[in-house]
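Side project, low priority. Logging it here so it doesn't get lost.
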Amino acid sequence: MASRRGYLTGFILASVLMALATFLVSSHALPPFALLLAIMACAGFAVIAQVYFLLHIDISEHNIWNTVALVAFVPLFVITIGLTWWMFSQLYLRTMPSIPGMPGMH
């Protein structure tokens, strides 16, 4: 059941993780690849905290259809974002004028 404590816990946990990611980026505390991994970890844990504490989706029998909907949604979301990125990167390569002397450009 929804409770004030659950909502507050989820909000605080997600806020702390986002503040940590913001601090890591603004302070340049890690090398670029490690920074990317740390940001992805913070975002992943924040999403999990929000799904569990704010949306109350878990693997219990009571929430089985909400869990099934989430499991179906996540791959479709990732595919949609990936295909959109691919489409715009290809569009950029095909429509932007080439710059003389730039490696990798046509």
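Brief comment: The chain has a mean pLDDT of 86.
Revisit when time allows.
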